[in-house]
């Protein structure tokens, strides 16, 4: 029995994820002594668009239904009239569990439909965030162009209007300059559709903005440029003042304070840099086992772990971090549960060092006669020493102007974090704009209709008092038993 679109009772049961009803159908057929070949033919019956029951089960992410159908001879390799297989349909339904199941069975993640679209093309076009995250984590090519339109997944994500999917593709290496068959880039499509928030994402960020960590770049390649730049500036500033300004210092208090600030900055920098921020490890499980127990957004497909509350995967470090605050290129490390307190003291001591050196320069600029009381170097020509000292004082002022304001802002943000018991990620994390997923492709191809909802892991409630929040941020988070820390290198 079929309806006008050639949907059988089994199609409808699978489309509505009705496992028990599907079981009853098979029990009935067996009770009627229906030949196995006839049952298999019924299981593989096609709709008017060529969909079979296993397509719908994949779309709903029901592994039990899929296994039930397989047990009665369902053809898992079947494609509909548009060349869509179970992987394409799983991506349309935003079902990483179906994707993981068929991937384990040897399916090609880059399988093409009749128009050259991969599962990632479909996930991007429909704004399916979970499917996009998992497919890109497993290596699906974000720059592959389909045959008919020349669209990459990024083009299709722009058409969907989903800023989160666009951002994910950019992070995973999507090239925003690729043109489609009509010579249009993703940005051109965003401008046509008046998606201002996506246009901003596609415009990219200057190297200065990325270098100074005003905003992280989308290409999450871990480099040590910022770390080396910071160490170079720190050593240069300290040594220049010791060599050229110290000969003019007559009061010991300046030397004592200089040593304190330099020492604290160095110590807390090393602890922030070398301390394991709270990496979490895989307990030797596989992705499908996790997806069978937990919702997709709670599982990290790259680390293959259940993400505890407040954790996040860092694309720079390639690991999930407990109580993730942010990745700081200046220390070439994440700021998380185990080193957040060190990072706060590092930026505070750095600010004090900058202010102190500025005051030191201001009080000793213009002094012409060196006293050599605390000097480590003797100079034969005092005029040359004076010129160098004046240049160092001016350089101190310039560095203070460049780094002083950002350091003040950073300190205020982090102090506020400790007062409120929240991380920077929780307070200022990316808020994408989602639009209702489209149901058909621009070329008129059909899509299985279905609702899509996305939940985010919310941070646990924090204590209200200032002292309790500070204690949690400084101590409790680092020892919380729910974070299964990975002991890798550094100071654990």
Helix content: 40-55%
Spatial sequence of strands, sheet with the most strands: 1-2
Low-confidence stretches: 431-462, 487-492
For this structure, the CATH topology of the largest domain is Serine Threonine Protein Phosphatase 5, Tetratricopeptide repeat
Our count of domains comes out at: 2
Describe the global form: elongated
Number of helical segments with 4 or more residues: 21
Total count of strands:
6
CATH architecture identity of the largest domain: Alpha Horseshoe
- N-to-C order of helices and strands: HHHHHHHHHHHHHHHHHEEEEEEHHHH
Structural class: mainly alpha
CATH superfamily of the largest domain: Ankyrin repeat-containing domain
| Mean pLDDT score | 86
Could you characterize what this model shows?
There is one protein chain. The chain is elongated and about 110 Å long. A hairpin with a 4-residue loop joins strand 5 (326-328) and strand 6. Helix content is 50%, strand content 3%. It has a two-stranded antiparallel ribbon with strand order 1-2. The chain has a two-stranded antiparallel sheet with strand order 3-4. A two-stranded antiparallel ribbon has the order 5-6. It has helices spanning 9-15, 19-31, 36-43, 53-60, 63-71, 86-92, 96-104, 119-125, 129-137, 153-160, 163-171, 186-192, 196-202, 207-211, 225-245, 252-274, 287-293, 340-364, 382-420, 424-428, 466-479, and strands spanning 299-300, 305-306, 312-314, 319-321, 326-328, 333-335. The chain folds into 2 domains: 9-208, Ankyrin repeat-containing domain (Serine Threonine Protein Phosphatase 5, Tetratricopeptide repeat, Alpha Horseshoe); 225-278 and 323-423 and 459-479, no CATH class. By secondary structure, it is mainly α. Residues 431-462 and 487-492 have low confidence and may be disordered.
């Amino acid at each position: 029995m079929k309806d006008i679109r050639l949907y059988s009772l089994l199609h409808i049961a699978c489309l509505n994820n009705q496992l028990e009803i599907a079981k009853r159908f098979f029990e009935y057929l067996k009770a009627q002594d229906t030949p196995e070949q006839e049952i298999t033919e019924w299981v593989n019956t096609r709709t008017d668009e060529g969909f079979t029951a296993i397509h719908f089960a994949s779309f709903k992410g029901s592994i039990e239904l899929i296994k039930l159908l397989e047990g009665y001879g369902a053809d898992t390799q079947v494609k509909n009239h548009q060349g869509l297989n179970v992987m394409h349909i799983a991506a349309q339904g935003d079902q990483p569990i179906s994707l993981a199941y068929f991937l384990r069975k040897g399916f090609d993640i880059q399988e093409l439909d009749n128009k050259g679209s991969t599962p990632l093309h479909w996930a991007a076009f429909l704004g399916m965030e979970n499917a996009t995250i998992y497919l890109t984590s497993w290596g699906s090519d974000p720059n592959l162009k389909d045959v008919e339109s020349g669209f990459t997944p990024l083009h299709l994500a722009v058409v969907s209007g989903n800023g989160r999917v666009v951002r994910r593709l950019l992070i995973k290496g999507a090239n925003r300059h690729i043109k489609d068959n009509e010579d249009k880039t993703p940005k051109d499509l965003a401008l046509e559709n008046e998606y201002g928030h996506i246009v901003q994402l596609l415009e990219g960020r200057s190297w200065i903005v990325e270098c100074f960590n005003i905003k992280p770049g989308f290409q999450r390649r871990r480099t040590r440029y910022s770390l080396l730049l910071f160490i170079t500036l720190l050593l240069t500033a300290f040594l220049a003042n010791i060599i050229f300004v110290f000969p003019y210092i007559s009061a010991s208090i300046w030397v004592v304070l200089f040593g304190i600030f330099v020492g604290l900055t160095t110590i807390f920098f090393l602890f922030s840099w070398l301390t394991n921020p709270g990496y979490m490890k895989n307990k030797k499980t596989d992705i499908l086992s996790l997806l069978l127990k937990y919702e997709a957004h709670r599982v990290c497909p790259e680390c293959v772990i259940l993400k505890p509350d407040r954790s996040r995967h860092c694309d720079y470090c390639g690991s999930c971090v407990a109580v993730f605050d942010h990745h700081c290129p200046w220390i070439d490390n994440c700021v998380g549960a185990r080193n957040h307190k060190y990072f706060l003291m590092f930026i505070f001591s750095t600010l004090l060092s900058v202010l102190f050196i500025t005051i030191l320069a201001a009080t000793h600029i213009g002094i012409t006669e060196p006293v050599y009381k605390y000097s480590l170097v003797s100079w034969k020509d005092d005029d040359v020493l004076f010129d160098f000292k004046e240049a160092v004082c001016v350089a101190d002022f310039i560095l203070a102007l460049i780094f002083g304001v950002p350091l003040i802002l950073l300190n205020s943000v982090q102090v506020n974090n400790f007062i409120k018991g929240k991380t920077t990620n929780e307070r200022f994390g990316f808020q994408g704009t989602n639009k209702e997923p489209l149901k058909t492709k621009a070329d008129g191809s059909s899509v299985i209709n279905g609702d899509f909802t996305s939940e985010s892991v919310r941070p646990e409630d924090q204590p209200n008092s200032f002292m309790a929040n500070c204690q949690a941020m400084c101590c409790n988070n680092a020892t919380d038993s729910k974070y299964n820390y990975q002991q890798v290198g550094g100071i654990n």
